[in-house]
């Protein structure tokens, strides 16, 4: 059982990476992919903490990449930061170039951060994905209907179906990815062979309070833009 989409204080989550590992251990997750917005720093901290403490859960280094049109792509099994504000095909190609896997994040929600069916259809003419989030707690009936219709026509082009929580408050396993095996290598094999099963989680988390929501909004609306500006500046200097 894997959680493939969650955030820490390295981006707009409110839980430190180390604490997220503790929560994953408590829930009995086998694999935890930490996928902060536009940085792998939280994932590296979580992985180092899991290794240092002998945690049972295996941490994957990931990142939720912001593209030029604000469509989000989750990169898994990363070695380095993926450049931001590029086209979806260029983003996917860069993830693949470092041996990672590219997953469509929370599709068809009708939000700026969520790719539309038309834009995904256009991207598929120029790149291939390794997976798509088919179970996500933020998906309502309209998004699920749009995704079902899209998969009926283009299911072979978007890779494995996965479940992911997009957790910002430490509320892991609201949606999970089931796979045969236990560790990250088994998960990767299942993703590549498209044998994963998305599932809604049965974990009941306390509702985040006002303070938690304010912390999330502060990080999302103030800290993330500053961080992204610094990232774009560094990308420009390195170009």
Secondary-structure map:
Blueprint: E1 2-3, H1 17-27, E2 31-34, H2 41-53, E3 58-66, E4 72-76, H3 88-97, E5 101-104, H4 117-123, E6 131-135, H5 141-154, E7 160-163, E8 175-178, H6 184-193, E9 197-200, H7 210-238
Helix pairs in contact: 1-2
Q: Keyphrases for this structure?
A:
239 residues, alpha/beta, TIM Barrel, seven-stranded mixed β-sheet, two-stranded antiparallel sheet, 9 strands, 17% strand, globular
Can you tell me about this structure?
The protein has 239 residues and is an alpha/beta fold. Helices cover 39% and strands 17% of the residues. The chain has one domain (2-238): TIM Barrel (Alpha-Beta Barrel). It is built from seven helices and nine strands. The longest helix has 29 residues, at 210-238.
Return the CATH class.
Answer: Alpha Beta
CATH superfamily: Metal-dependent hydrolases
In total, how many domains does the architecture comprise? 1
Rg is: 16 Å
How many strand elements? 9
Tell me the fraction of residues in β-strands, as a range.
15-25%
Identify the overall geometry: globular
Strand order of the largest sheet: 1-2-3-4-5-6-7
How many helices? Answer: 7
Low-confidence stretches: none
DSSP helix fraction: 25-40%
CATH topology value: TIM Barrel
Output the helix-strand order: EHEHEEHEHEHEEHEH
Condensed summary:
This protein is α/β, with parallel strands linked by helices.
């Amino acid at each position: 059982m894997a959680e493939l989409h969650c955030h820490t204080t390295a981006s707009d989550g409110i839980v430190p990476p180390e604490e997220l590992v503790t929560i994953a251990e408590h829930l009995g997750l086998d694999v935890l992919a930490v996928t902060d917005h536009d940085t792998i720093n939280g994932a590296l901290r979580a992985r180092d903490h899991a290794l240092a403490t002998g945690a049972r859960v295996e941490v994957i280094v990931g990142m939720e990449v912001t593209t030029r049109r604000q469509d989000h792509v989750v990169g898994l099994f990363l070695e380095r930061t993926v450049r931001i504000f590029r086209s979806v095909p260029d983003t996917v190609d860069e993830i693949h170039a470092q041996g990672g896997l590219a997953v469509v994040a929370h599709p068809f929600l009708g939000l700026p951060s969520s790719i539309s069916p038309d834009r995904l259809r256009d991207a598929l003419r120029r790149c291939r994905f390794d997976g798509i989030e088919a179970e996500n707690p933020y998906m309502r009936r309209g998004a699920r209907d749009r995704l079902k219709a899209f998969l009926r026509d283009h299911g072979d082009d978007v890779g494995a179906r996965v479940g992911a929580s997009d957790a910002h408050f430490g509320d892991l396993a609201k949606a999970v990815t089931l796979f045969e095996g236990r560790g990250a290598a088994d998960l990767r094999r299942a993703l590549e062979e498209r044998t994963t099963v998305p599932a809604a989680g049965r974990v009941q988390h306390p509702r985040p309070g006002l303070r938690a929501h304010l912390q999330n909004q502060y990080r999302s609306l103030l800290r993330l833009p500053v961080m992204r500006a610094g990232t774009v500046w560094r990308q420009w200097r390195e170009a």
